[in-house]
Structure formats: C-alpha cells, structure tokens
Write a structure and sequence with these properties.
single chain, mainly beta, 6-stranded mixed β-sheet
C-alpha cells in the first residue's frame, strides 16, 4: 500500500559564508536543484563551485576540511577553477566546510565555504497514479500505455524490470510504458502490472488496464510459405534474411502477429489482399549460423493472450565475407601545395579482391563511406591496386594520424598511419572554445542556433573545419554556415530539427553532444544540459534546443476532431483531405507547431518503417496551421490509395517526447476508410530467363500493377557499371500486362559474344528497384550499400523483389563469353586540366570544369563507363563529378565534367582533386590520385583548388515543403540580412514581389502571406536599393491538393453468399515426382496437400510450366475456344509461327439424371447468340424448353468465356482462385429448369481435346484426372500430347439458388455408350459436372490453360505410336464400340490434317459430329 511505502526526499538548504581573504567561492547550482534517492538512508546531489584565487594564484584543489569529499576540476586557468562535487548525505542536517588550495598549505583561515544540506525522508504514500492511456496496440510502439505519477519530486529516480517493459520520461511526470514482446506474448490478464522500484525495499506497482480491441474472430491462418521454401538459408551479407508469408481471415482491421525467437521479434505486416483476407509477410530475425527455431504468434479470441500458430526451423549457414587484406598501406606525405599538405596511401599487393562492398575510410577520427571507383588505381577485381590522396595539415598537435580502410563489419583493415610534418605543442593551438550560444525557435519543430567559436590560445593557427551535433544521429555543419568573422574566430548559424526521441530511463545516456572539429587535429567536445562550461565571460550549461510545453494534459484537452472527408473510399484513388482539431485551454497550445503524419501501413512503408520505433517516429511532418477565425488547427494531407481500410491511424507530435497516437482516441475522432483492394507491397519477380545480353523478367504486381524501376548491373571482373531503366516500354508484346508480364532487359554491351575485343566475365545484378503505380517499392541489394553505413541499419528483407530466388543468386548473373585475353595494362591519363585553381565558395559562381584525356593502346577504353572526378576537402565530405566523353576514337577518349560545389565547400583550406574509373575493353581499370595528377604536370595546380568565402552574397540552399494551400515558406541559406524583397516567378509567366520579410536572420527567412500557387515557381532574394545584391533562383514544385473527393470509383462487390456445409475438400495427398515436387527450384512438399509449386511451375509434381500464349481468336458462333500453340516452349521463348499443337474446349449438352444416375433427358446445345463484352470476354446465350407435365418453361443457358493474359486472383463461390496467365474461364449460368422429379439433378457435359500436327512418328499421349494439390479443393483433367498439356480445373462448388454448395465432377470416358479413346497424336475426353437440384439458377466456373511439360508423355497409361502402341485388347475395344466412336476417330484424323484448311470449317465439323453423338 502507498501509505506504507517510504523513500528519501531531500531538501537542500545552503548557507554560504565567505571569508574573502585569498579565495572567493561561487555556488553555480541552486541549493535545491539536485536530489535523488539511493538506498533509503541517504540523498545524492551534484554541486558546482567556482573558486577564484584573489591574489592571482592557481587553484588546484577544493574539498571538505576532513578530506572526505574532493572536487573534480572541470575547467581552470591561471586564477580560476571550476569544481564538480558528487555529495552523498545521510538523513537529516549535514554541514560541510570546503577549502581551496593553490599549492600551499590548506588553511581555512585564508578562505572557506560553508554548506548546509538537509536530507529529508520522503514518504511514497503521497504518490498517486493516473492512467492517461490504457494499454493499446500501435504499429509504431506495439503495446504501450501512458501514466502520470502525481507528487513525484523532481529528480527522484526509479528502476524497473527491463525484461517486462521499457519506460520513457515525457515531462510533466508523464511516462510512456512500452511493453516487451516476452511480456505481452504470454500475458493473459486484463491488468498489466509493472513494479517501479524507488529503492532496494520500496516500490510502487503500476497497474494499467488493457483496452479491448473487440471480439477477435480469427477464422483461419493458412497458406504459410517460407522463403527459401527448403528452410535452408545461406547467409551472404546479412542484408536479406529468410521470410515467412501467410494468409489470414479475421474480422479485425489489423490483427496482431509476432514472429521471432530468443526474445527477438518482428512484426508481420499486411501487404496484399482484401478486407478480412490478407497476406502477411515477416522477416525471420535474428539470423545466426547453425539455424534457429522461429514461432509465429497471433492474438486469439480470449485477448490479450496470444496463441502460437506455427513453429519452424531455419537451417542457416554463413559464407565468408570478402574483406580487405590485413596489411599496411604505403603512405607518403607531400607539403609542396600552398595552403594544404596531402598524404597518399597505396596498396600494391596481390591479396586484395573486390566484391562490390563499399569501403569505410577512417581518417583522423572522421569517417567516410566510399565505393568503386574511388581509390582503384589498377588491376581488376581479382587483384586490386589501390591508392588515394587525402588532405592533411602541415602542422598538428597529434603525434600520430590514424588512417584505416576496411569493408563491411571491419573484420580486417588496411592501415596507412603516418606522423605529421611538424608536431606542435597542444598549448600552441589549444581547444576551440564557445564564446556564445543561443537558440531561437522558428516554427515547424525547428530551431535556429547561433554559436561563436574561437581558440583562446592561438587564433592564428586554429580554424574550424566543421561542427557536429549528435542527437539521435549526427548532424554536420561546415563553414558554409559561417555568417561573420573567420573560421578562427567567427559566428556560425545552423538549423536543428526536433526529432522524436526515446531515451529509456534505465539506459539514459547523454545523447546531445556538440563537437567542434578544427585544423591541426584540434577538437572540443561539449555535452548539452549536463556540465558547466565557460561561455564567454560566464559559466553556464549549454541548453539543447527544446520545446517547453505549457500543458501536458493534451490527451484530455484534445477535442473537436473532424475531417473534410470521412468514411472515404480509397480503392484505386488517393484522397486529399483536411483534419480539423482544437484543444481545451487553447492558450496553452495555439503557439505550437504540431507535426502530423499518417501511420497506416502504406505511409509507414514510404518512410521505410522497419519494425523499429526509431525509424518511424521521424518522418517528414505535415504541420498543422492555426486558424484564428475558427479558433482551431487544420492540416492538409493525402490518404494513400489501396492501403488497409478501417481506421486510418495518424499521429500528432508536440515535441521530442510527446505524441498523440490515434489508436488511443475514441471512434468519433477516427478517420474511416473503405477499400476492396489492399496493396502496400511493391512488384516481385516470379520468373527469370537468362539471355545472351540480359534477361527476361516476369514481373508481377497483381493489384496496383507495375509502373517502372531500374537495375544496376556490374561486370564481376572489371566493375563496369550499367544503370538500366525499366518501364512498360520493355514489356514483351503479348506476354501480359502491368499486372503480370515479361520484360526484356538488355545490357548495352558494345561487342558481340565471341569477340576478341572483350573478355569473358559474368555480369551481375547488384541492385534492383521496382515501383508499382501507387509508389510501393521493393528493392534488392546484393551487398552492403553506402546507405547501410549512413543509416546504421540493415535493409528490410520483406521488400526484396527476388523473394523467390533467396539463396540462389545464379539467375541474377549471366556469363558473357568473349575470345579476348585479359589485358594487364590499364588505361593511362594523358592530361588533366582544371578550369580554375581558386573558387569563392560563398559566391553564386561556384562551378568548376575538369577536362582530361585517357588512352589505352592495347585494347581501347570501354564505352559507356564514365570516370568520376572526386573533390576531397578536409572533412572527407567528397563531391563527385561524373564525366562524359567529348571526343572518342579507337584508343583515346577525351572527357569533361562540370560541377557546382556546395556553399562553403572546402573553406578555408581548399580541396584535393582525383579521378578514377577508367576501364578498358579487356578487364583492366585505372584511376589517379591527386599525387598522380600532380606528377603528370607538376607546374600546373590541377590537383588542388584553394577556396575563399564572401559574406555579402545571398544564396538560397533549401526551402521548406510547400503546397498550393500554404501561405508560409521557410527559406534557408546565407547572407539574408541584406535582402528586403522576395521575387516569385511562376512558370505560367506571372511575377510576384513580396516586401514583407518575417524574422530575418543571416541564414533563414520566414516568408508569410505567400499566395496560392498551383504551378512550379522560382524564388529569388534581392535588395531593392542595391541592384548588385541578389541571390540565385531556387525552383519550388508545390504539392498540389485538390479537395474534390466524390465517392467510390468502382461497383461494390455483391453480398457474401451463405454456404451449405460441408463443402468438399480434397483428401490428403502424397508428394510426387523424382526429384520430389520437381526439385527445390520448382516446388516443395506440404504435408496433407501435396506439391506446392512456384510460378510458373504447375501440376501435381510441379514439372509442368505455364505457357504464355497470345489471345486466341474469338468464336462468335458458339462457346468454344480453340487455342493454337506454337512449337518449342511457346509464347515469348520461340519465334515459331507454325502451330504444332491445338487444343479445343466446348460445351456439349446438359442431361437430367435420376437419383441413381440414369439419364432421364438430354438437351444438346444448338444455336448460340454472341455478345462481345470486351476484347477478351464474350457472352453466349442459348435456351431449351424443359417440361414436367403442364409445367413448361424456357430454360436459359448463359456462358461467359473470359481470356486472361496475366495472372489474376478472382473469387467464385466464396473461394479465392488464381487465374494463370494465358488461361480461359467458363462461367455458365442455367436458369429456370423444370425437373421431372425433386430427386433428380443436372449434369453439364463439356468436351476437351489436345492434338499435335507434328508428323513425327515417335510421339505419345496421356490423360490424367484427379485432385489438385495447391489447396483450391478442385479436380483437374490433364490431356498431354508429347510435352504439351491441356489442363482443366473444375472446382467442387457452385452457386445454387444464391447458396454455395458442393458439386461433383466426373470423367465421362463412355459418353453416350461411346468409348473415348486416344491416339499417340491426340487425346480427348468428356467431363460431367453434376449440379444439385435447384429452383431458380445455378452458376459453375471451370477454367483451362496450356502447360509445357518437363518430360514427354510416357508411362503405363500412355498411348504411343511406336513400341508402346495400342494393345490387342484396346483394338478389340475400339471395334466393339459403336459407329459413333469411329466418328470420333474420323474427327481426330481430320483435325490432324487440316492445318492448311479453314479452321472455322473444321470447328463446324467437330461440332456437327458431337451433335450426332447425342
């Protein structure tokens, strides 16, 4: 109980008595500013004292008179010293007397300082807890809650069990509790309890109720797929891990799942589907050698508990990573350049192999990430010669300069450490010191900071190179931010942005650090809000820019939420919207800049949400605008198309710790949306065919459709680089559409296969990025990229477009064979010219042009491989200038490039110039460091450019996001104090001059009253009184909002039909094939189902492949489809126009059957009326007269035949089915049939055949009928001739009188007393679809397509033309059969030999003969 909980609370009371004889003491900390609890018997506080030697003496000691407490010197000079004391006091009154010493005897009579501290016992029974937010689920925080502890004294600390939760302080005694997976996965209570421990024996139990998410009905979790399907994963580079996908049916908008092992969990995220039927995908993490067991958990109906739905093992093996040699670089120094020295490091060994991993270059405590071609001076990727030049100081206070180079994870390093030219004592340069620091809030969660810096020791020797502020990540500001003075003694302005920060209480560390990097290897480090520093002439703490909320009760004050459009439909349309809201106690909030962002799944993907709250909480906010007329806020935003329907979640951000998550809010404050489509996933590649100079990709995006993308292809030996764009123009005609189709990718290689002008090597796809029509992106990277290093995070495995090729990168490379021999002589640099040797990097003219020539007399220079010029300043923030050829001949190419360097680049020391990336035609590359360029022409300064910086020229460097509905624009840059006018030039020809400039700083302007602009426009700043003062023109493309939502863009789906149980399901089946299921690349065995095939493989053993066929001609006379099939592999894989196979599907009749199966009546189909729906869909109508006594009705039969060029998911009778590319679907409706008896039913008879016109005698046919194995609970019929098959699927359900019921499909090999036999060149069958008794209408839905088989027809039941011909018994059976069977054979013979006849006439003959059988 609270009243029994006691703890320590201290009240410090300081009484200062000064004996101002030789020392003066100043207390820099208020007497009651720090108090913490320890073990219940003492209090802790931190005190800062400034001691001054009044007679000019040094102060080197301060402590209590009993020598029990000693201060630590934080700063000192000749007569001052700043001391820090950590004091632990027992309960009650405590008296301390402090003395100082300047080197002599410690004597209180020459100066002392008295301090009284009172440590008061604190009773925790005075604490109370308010539940601000119950335990809720959020995609960003997972399960979390917010509490407030009332009467909690300042700085009283507590601990907790970090295995249960992580707790974050929000301010105002608010705390956010984020519960750990290991806690909530096994939690089954409605009250979640966390123990806050204030001391060893005292604690406060926090009980938070769980907020009900509604009655969860998890109908089914099915279709679990592991990538790779074998469960054996090879770890190449830790970029992409194994994946699990599954489908669910649930009534919950966003069901909660977790996948993981050993306490590490990822969140399966929905990617595709429709409401209540979603596909999820998740990464299996962590991935460790020797394998891991993973479990899939889902929240069950008795929430908040979770059930384990699946447990599986992934066998993981790891391949060695390529590393740099563990050797030394040969470093040489050069001080001949005026103003800058350089060090050149080279590796000329034989052990350096390159596999496209970027490098991490560490130089004098500065890091840079580089990639090919930087540093590659010779050789090839099997034996790299490496070298580079870096700027260095002529003089340094560091006796040792570290230079290392390594690849990913830095297991081994190449070192090129060196000593400076001249070693200076530290006192000659000193540490850069802050002279002033101020922060001004400019709005939109941004602060403008001004800092004055100089070295008090030697401003002549010292200069600032750059500033670095560490918040959640490092922000670097170079001398482009200098607004006055010099780099030795100047003022810098820079903008920092408030980022949402989660600092766990148990692991609180100082995150906010300012580092000042100077030349001569001098640097200074300052911690914000922690230590006292001498700033100017005063001692104070550095205060990090923070927003101070006036009111922390925002969750209760948040009211009157509404949207311009609510209950919106986002199917295939993005909706521009406005949110309106306000607060009670509005004066506490109206001056805030409140950030807004959506947290629906699509928006999370767009900001690279990777199951980490740190990657989600800092997006590009939309900012709410205060509307004085409505006394409330409004914010414009866009709701993305085809994201998850239901409540579209959002968040409002107030500062770095306080946020409103819409999942907490009541229903009236929710943004509601509907959609019949869900697609928040990018395109994937389902099939890869290698070709001579590239590939054919089958790209699938079944909902949104593929839009465009690109691939990076590299030569494995010579690192040649090809950026290949991909869009709908690459779609192979007739292969499909944007939903699934084949795209041709060609590497633009100059020489043909076999040429002696090139060398044999593999070309490898190292990066591929594909986008759909609504911006969803999937990206593959083969190796670590520069982004990996900079963001300090791995790539999200679920967005890999090659998920079907995990573990097997062989389809992503082609081997290009040439006859040329490897050239060991790389290209030479003939000349290198720089257009200018000095640049004013504070001016508008910051362009520099490089012209150079390379030559390779042995094999010529490879075309399309453009070298890169590197500009390298002191802080290694390299700029790159990609050159293009201007003059080309067989052995020599002249290149040129121009670059505009950033403002302040390389100031004040200048920058070095290098060039790399020359590749010849036979496998050798070269590059040239600054030293190499200097050695080429020592008399010209082409390897170095000096820099100057003008302060009086305004330059715009960036602006804030702007829309056509905004009126405020933030402009950032330099030298803005001298301007008074903004000129807006709109692309439609209009020009607007704005004189009002709000809050002008040197580097920032807040422009208000900007009119609504719907076109791109330029902004320029100028001084109306001095025409020579004007800035550059900066182009702005406004975001366009059109608030014109008008409702759904589709016809809503019909009501879900009821089901008559039980519906038939296929019996368990064993997996067939040798190897089983076609092998690991074609399919896998799923217990109880059989073989599950990877597209495009199909069949019960995954050895048949779907063929892409052009859309066949429409038969306008009858519901018959004839599919001519080219020879070879069909579709895009052959140029053959001769049809070697033909398949035929048609409707024959309907029959009324008695209860025992006897035929009561037969109605052959005769005349049909055709109606075209679209180019691939036709409707056929016919009728018969049915009668039972006096009950006579016209029975209508409607058949819709639809051709599918691409894969598509459809729904029939409550079952989702995948239609394969080049497939045909028959939808047959029968209405108003009069049965002769209530016990009778109908049977629809269909005919299917496949024949070959190949005159080859060695040929076989085969017919199979059975149950499918892919989970669709259907029958299949497979008619195979040689290596081609007609495949028909007959699902075991129909819609009968608006009820889904089960039906039966049978093979009618003895139809109308006729034995249907096959020949070696043809096979055919009749299929009966038995339909239950009905009153009004029945609908059935079979489909057919063509397969290419891995093996020709063979086996016990095959019919062959040679050794396996017809047996005597079969011949006897044929003779015994009626004349009608002879007619069938005649039809087949006619069919074989009519390939040069009119096909319409043939189809009519087939139809006539079929009628005779009835």
């Amino acid at each position: 109980m609270l009243r029994n909980l006691f703890f320590l609370f201290l009240i410090f009371s300081t009484i200062i008595k000064l004996n101002a004889q030789q020392f003066k003491f100043t207390d820099l900390t208020p007497s009651n500013n720090s108090f913490t609890g320890d073990d219940g018997n003492s209090c802790k506080t931190i005190k800062y004292f400034l001691a001054e030697g009044l007679q000019g003496q040094n102060v080197n000691f301060m402590g209590d008179i009993d020598f029990l407490i000693t201060g630590i010197i934080e700063w000192s000079n000749s007569s001052f010293a700043l001391f820090k004391f950590d004091i632990q006091s027992p309960l009650g009154n405590n008296f301390y007397q402090f003395v100082a010493n300047g080197g002599g005897v410690i004597d209180p009579s020459i100066g002392y300082f008295d301090l009284n501290l009172y440590c008061k016992e604190f009773n925790t029974s005075t604490l109370s807890v308010d539940i601000i937010q119950e335990v809720i689920w959020s995609t960003t925080f997972k399960y979390f809650s917010v509490i407030k502890i009332n009467n909690l004294p300042e700085n009283v600390k507590f601990t907790y069990d970090s295995q249960m939760a992580k707790i974050y302080e929000m301010g105002g005694n608010l705390f956010r509790i984020i519960y750990n997976d290991n806690f909530y996965l096994f939690q089954n209570l409605d009250i979640w309890s966390i123990d806050f421990k204030f001391s060893v024996s005292k604690s406060l139990i926090i009980n938070v109720p769980f907020k009900d998410r509604g009655n969860i009905v998890m109908n089914e979790i099915y279709d679990l797929k592991l990538y790779p399907p074998s469960g054996k994963f090879v770890l190449y580079s830790n970029i992409f891990g194994p994946l699990l996908s599954f489908r669910i049916k649930s009534n919950l908008q966003n069901p909660v799942f977790r996948l993981g092992t050993l306490g590490y969990y990822s969140t399966p995220r929905p990617i595709l589907g429709k409401p209540n039927n979603l596909t999820f995908i998740a990464t299996c993490l962590p991935i460790m050698a020797n394998g891991m067991n993973f479990s899939l958990y889902g929240q069950n109906e008795s929430q908040p508990s979770f059930d384990e739905y699946s447990n599986f093992f992934v066998n993981i093996t790891e391949t060695p990573r390529t590393q740099t040699p563990n050797s030394n670089l040969n470093s040489t120094k050069d001080n001949s350049t005026v103003g800058m020295a350089m060090v050149t490091s080279e590796y000329n060994g034989t052990e350096f192999k390159f596999k496209f991993n970027p490098f991490q270059l560490e130089y004098k405590q500065t890091f840079a990430i580089t990639d090919f071609p930087f540093g590659f001076i010779g050789g090839n990727n099997e034996m790299v010669k490496f070298g580079f030049s870096l700027p260095t100081d002529l003089m340094s206070i560091s006796p040792f300069n570290m230079l290392t180079l390594c690849m990913a994870r830095c297991i081994t390093r190449m070192r090129g450490d060196y000593e400076p030219f001249i070693l200076l004592p530290y006192t000659d340069v000193g540490k850069p010191e802050i002279q002033s620091f101020t922060s001004s809030y400019i709005g939109n969660l941004k602060f403008l900071n001004r800092i004055g810096i100089k070295s008090t020791n030697s401003p002549i020797l010292f200069s600032v190179i750059f500033l670095k502020i560490k918040d959640s990540k490092y922000f670097v500001f170079d001398n482009g931010m200098l607004v006055s003075g010099t780099p030795s003694d100047g003022i810098w302005e820079f903008v920092t942005e408030i980022k949402f920060d989660l600092s766990e209480i148990n692991n609180a560390i100082t995150k906010n650090i300012l580092e000042i990097e100077g030349n001569k290897d001098s640097r200074g480090t300052y911690k914000f809000s922690e230590l006292f520093y001498k700033i100017g002439n005063e001692f104070s703490k550095l205060t990090y820019p923070r927003i101070n909320l006036k009111n922390y009760n925002y969750l209760n004050d948040f009211v009157q939420v509404s949207f311009l459009y609510n209950d919106i439909d986002i199917t295939d349309q993005s909706v521009d919207n406005i949110m309106f809201f306000t607060f009670n106690n509005i004066e506490d909030y109206k001056e805030l800049s409140i950030g807004f962002y959506l947290t629906d799944q699509k928006s999370l993907n767009d900001i690279r949400f990777e199951n980490s709250i740190f990657t989600i909480l800092n997006p590009n906010y939309k900012f709410a605008v205060w509307d004085q007329t409505t006394n409330g806020f409004r914010v414009n935003f866009k709701v993305p198309a085809n994201t998850l329907p239901g409540n579209i979640s959002y968040a409002l951000v107030f500062d770095n710790k306080n946020i409103i998550d819409s999942n907490y809010l009541s229903n009236e404050y929710q943004l509601r949306a509907t959609s019949i489509k869900i697609d928040v996933y990018g395109p994937i590649v389902t099939k890869i065919i290698k070709q001579q100079k590239g590939w054919v990709f089958t790209i699938q995006d079944e909902v949104n459709g593929f839009k465009d993308g690109f691939l990076i292809v590299k030569g494995v030996l010579d690192s040649s680089f090809y950026n290949i764009s991909l869009n709908m123009s690459n779609l192979i005609e007739g292969s499909g559409d944007k939903y699934i189709g084949d795209y041709k990718i060609i590497i633009p290689l100059e020489f043909d296969i076999g040429s002696s002008n090139c060398i044999t090597q593999d070309y490898l796809i190292t990066l591929a990025s594909f986008f759909d029509t609504y911006g969803n992106n999937n990206t593959y990277v083969k190796y670590f990229t520069q982004e990996y290093y900079e963001e300090s995070q791995s790539f999200e495995s679920t967005v890999n477009p090659f998920i079907h090729f995990i573990n097997d990168s062989s389809p992503l490379s082609i081997n290009y064979i040439c006859s040329g021999e490897l050239d060991i002589s790389p290209p030479n640099l003939i000349f290198f010219k720089t257009s200018r040797s000095s640049i004013d990097v504070g001016s508008l003219d910051r362009s520099i042009t490089f012209t150079f020539q390379a030559q390779d007399l042995e094999s010529g220079i490879k075309l399309g491989q453009n070298p890169i010029v590197y500009l390298i300043p002191q802080r290694l923030a390299m700029e790159q200038c990609q050159a293009t050829p201007t003059i080309i001949n067989s052995t020599t190419i002249t290149f040129s490039c121009t670059i505009e360097v950033p403002v302040g680049f390389g100031y004040p020391d200048g920058f070095l110039i290098s060039v790399y990336g020359f590749i010849n035609n036979r496998g050798a590359y070269s590059g040239f460091s600054s030293k190499d360029i200097k050695d080429l022409n020592p008399l010209q300064q082409d390897w170095f450019a000096s820099t100057d910086f003008s302060f009086n020229i305004p330059i715009i460097t960036s602006v804030s996001e702007f829309s056509n509905k905004d009126s405020t624009l933030f402009i950032f840059g330099k030298s803005f104090r001298s301007v008074d006018t903004v000129v807006i030039s709109i692309s439609n020809g209009s020009v607007i001059n704005l004189k009002t400039l709000t809050k002008t700083y040197s580097s920032f302007i807040k422009l208000t009253e900007v009119p609504s602009i719907n076109f791109p426009f330029n902004v320029m700043l100028l001084n109306s009184n001095q025409i020579n003062i004007k800035s550059n023109e900066f182009l702005i493309n406004p975001i366009i909002y059109n608030f014109n939502y008008s409702g759904p863009t589709y016809t809503p789906e019909p009501t879900i039909l009821p089901t008559k149980s039980p519906l038939p399901t296929n019996p368990p089946q064993r997996c067939l094939g040798n190897p089983e299921c076609g092998g690991k690349n074609k399919g896998y065995c799923q217990s109880g189902f059989g073989c599950i095939c990877y597209s495009p493989w199909y069949g019960v053993d995954c050895t048949s492949k779907i063929i892409i066929i052009p859309t066949p001609q429409t038969n306008t006379s009858e519901p018959t489809i004839e599919i001519p099939i080219p020879g070879g592999s069909g579709g895009q894989e052959t140029n053959s126009t001769e049809f070697l196979f033909k398949s035929l599907v048609t409707l024959v009749s309907i029959r009324e059957l008695g209860f025992n199966g006897e035929v009561i009546k037969t109605y052959p189909f005769d005349k049909w009326v055709f109606d075209e729906i679209d180019l691939t869909t036709g409707r056929y109508n016919t009728s018969i007269v049915s009668q039972n006594g006096n009950d006579i009705k016209t029975t209508n039969i409607t058949t819709i035949i639809q051709w599918f060029n691409s894969s598509k998911n459809i729904t029939f009778a409550g079952q989702e089915l995948q239609m394969n590319p080049s497939s045909v679907k028959f939808t047959i409706e029968i209405e108003n049939y009069v049965f002769s008896s209530a016990l009778n039913n109908l049977e629809l008879v269909m005919f299917a055949s496949l024949l070959s016109t190949d005159e080859n005698d060695d040929i076989c046919s085969l017919k199979q009928f059975g149950n499918t194995t892919n989970g669709d609970n259907s029958n299949y019929i497979k008619l195979q001739v040689q290596d081609h098959s007609m495949y028909g699927r007959f699902i075991k359900r129909a819609i009968v009188d608006e009820i889904i019921v089960g039906i039966e499909n049978t093979l009618l090999d003895e139809f109308q007393n006729t034995i249907v036999e096959s020949t070696s060149h043809s096979t055919q069958t009749f299929i009966g679809i038995k339909i239950p008794h009905f009153k009004n209408k029945v609908t059935i839905d079979p489909d057919f397509f063509v397969l290419l088989d891995s093996e020709p027809a063979s086996g016990e039941n095959s019919v062959c033309s040679k050794s396996n011909g017809l047996s005597a018994s079969k011949i006897a059976g044929i003779v015994i059969g009626s004349v009608c069977f002879v007619a069938i054979i005649v039809i087949s013979i006619i069919y074989i030999f009519i390939k040069n006849k009119n096909s319409k006439k043939f189809r009519q003959q087939v139809q006539n003969k079929l009628k005779q059988l009835n």
